[in-house]
Specification:
- The protein is mainly α.
- The protein has 18 helices and no strands.
- It has one domain.
- Helices cover about 85% and strands about 0% of the residues.
């Protein structure tokens, strides 16, 4: 089978870095979509930021649905490539794309039908913010299929060993978004100023163009893609395997968002400004978790192909190399968020009251960056083995603990609003320590396989 990038051979560090850099670039491009929105919307005001932040929780929740076919595409395609099983590669491509289209239609319809109830849950207490949040949610939901399918196209190519193509394609979308965003938000000439609605329209327009480019490009880059029969009833065994791989991470992501929504409601008692602060702060913090996420995806593809080829020694060495790199990234992120909190936050939301809250948010979250990075990368290593349950178990337990911890620490007798931020930061520290220890135990249990590896 012709491979775009054979991850089972060659210098391990070079292979990982070559694969990871475009994935990290893609992650930063995806992060930049949101950051550009935040920069421009921040100029509209805190109310607009709070509206987008509130509606954004449901886009975040949508990641739970995306992850089922996304992780299955990455792992299934990578392991099939390692086994040189072309029929299995085509099977995973067909089923993951069929599934993501189905999920996008169902979830998008749900968001539109129950838009008022969903936004009303937050009890924002401001009719203007509520109205803007509903408008933003409806527009994004109308084009959600493009936002859903692009990560799966990216995952297919990553599993195939080609991480550069998704980077280039997603960069085109970013450039389009950068151009269209201010035009639609603030208006120009005959184009009226649409505010948060303009931000939503700019996002789905760019995602639509990215989808078209993916379809055209992937047919050229992967000849077997043209031989996939998409208009065909799904195979239940394959769907079961897809859910087996992707469902644990999906449940973790969905619960993570639900817990975040509950925490947002806790934060709402301090008014709309802290909600806007958390939205902006999480985007700034994503500098580290998007970077670690890039290595996580690279490690998933790397481990997947080598697991399929039964090369345990390369899996061991690849994991150690990745931990060294993401560890450095985590330490850098900690320093950046703690010592550069004020100028970083002021770039997105210069409002004085928001800036005061934002600086403290970044300083507290900065404490956990190293641990968060190693947790995310280790999750990718587990996924590559097809063991998607351990990262989900650790994530679900400690994300759930954030809610009672936030309620306790945020009491007036203790830390107030800062207690919410500490509940998030400390849980990330614990997740990093426990999941990394768990994976090291898994590696040690397989050391007899490592010693038998001829490499």
């Amino acid at each position: 089978m012709a491979k775009t990038n054979n991850l089972t051979e060659g210098n391990i560090s070079n292979v990982l870095i070559e694969l990871a850099l475009p994935i990290m670039g893609t992650s930063f491009v995806q992060m930049a979509y949101n950051m550009i929105d935040m920069i421009w919307i921040g100029r509209v005001g805190s109310n607009a930021m709070a509206a987008v932040g509130t509606a954004g929780f449901f886009m975040w929740l949508g990641m739970a649905f995306i992850l089922i076919p996304k992780i299955s595409a990455e792992v299934g395609v990578a392991q099939s490539i390692g086994r040189e099983d072309e029929a299995s590669v085509k099977n995973y491509i067909r089923h993951t794309l069929q599934l993501i289209v189905f999920l996008a239609v169902i979830y998008g319809s749900f968001l539109i039908l129950f838009r008022k109830n969903l936004i009303g849950f937050f009890n924002l207490g401001d009719t203007e913010v509520t109205s803007m949040a509903i408008s933003y949610l409806v527009i994004i939901a109308s084009g959600i299929i493009f936002g859903f399918i692009n990560p799966v196209f990216t995952a297919i190519l990553n599993g195939y060993g080609d991480s550069r193509t998704p980077f280039y394609i997603n960069t085109v979308g970013l450039v389009l978004n950068m151009i269209v965003d201010p035009l639609l938000i603030f208006g120009v000439g005959r184009i009226p100023a649409l505010g948060v609605q303009g931000a939503a329209l700019a996002t789905i327009s760019a995602q639509f163009i990215v989808t078209l480019i993916f379809i055209i490009t992937i047919r050229i880059k992967m000849p077997l893609f043209t031989r996939v029969k998409f208009i065909k009833w799904p195979n239940l065994d394959t769907l079961n395997r897809i859910f087996e791989l992707g469902l644990p991470a999906s449940i973790q992501s969905g619960l993570f968002t639900i817990f975040a929504i509950i925490i947002a409601r806790i934060i709402a008692k301090w008014g709309p400004v802290p909600i806007a602060v958390q939205k902006v702060g999480s985007q700034i913090e994503s500098i580290s978790w998007m970077t670690a996420g890039g290595f996580s995806t690279a490690l998933s593809a790397f481990v997947g192909q080598n697991y399929g080829a039964k090369k345990w020694n390369r899996i061991y060495k690849g994991y150690i190399s990745s931990m060294k790199i993401v560890g450095v990234i985590g330490i850098f992120a900690t320093c950046l968020l703690i010592f550069g909190a004020r100028p970083l936050f002021a770039l997105f939301l210069p409002d004085k009251e928001a800036l005061k809250y934002g600086v403290v948010y970044l300083e507290i979250l900065g404490v956990s960056q190293f641990f968060m990075c190693i947790e995310i990368a280790t999750g990718g290593a587990f996924n590559g083995l097809g063991k998607t349950l351990p990262p989900s178990i650790v994530g679900i337990i400690f994300n759930a603990l954030r809610v009672p911890a936030a309620l306790l620490l945020s009491s007036e007798a203790l830390l107030g609003l800062n207690g919410v931020w500490w509940s998030i930061s400390l849980s990330s520290v614990l997740k990093g320590i426990i999941l990394t220890t768990w994976f090291i135990i898994v590696l040690r249990k397989n050391r007899y396989l490592i010693s038998m590896d001829s490499e």
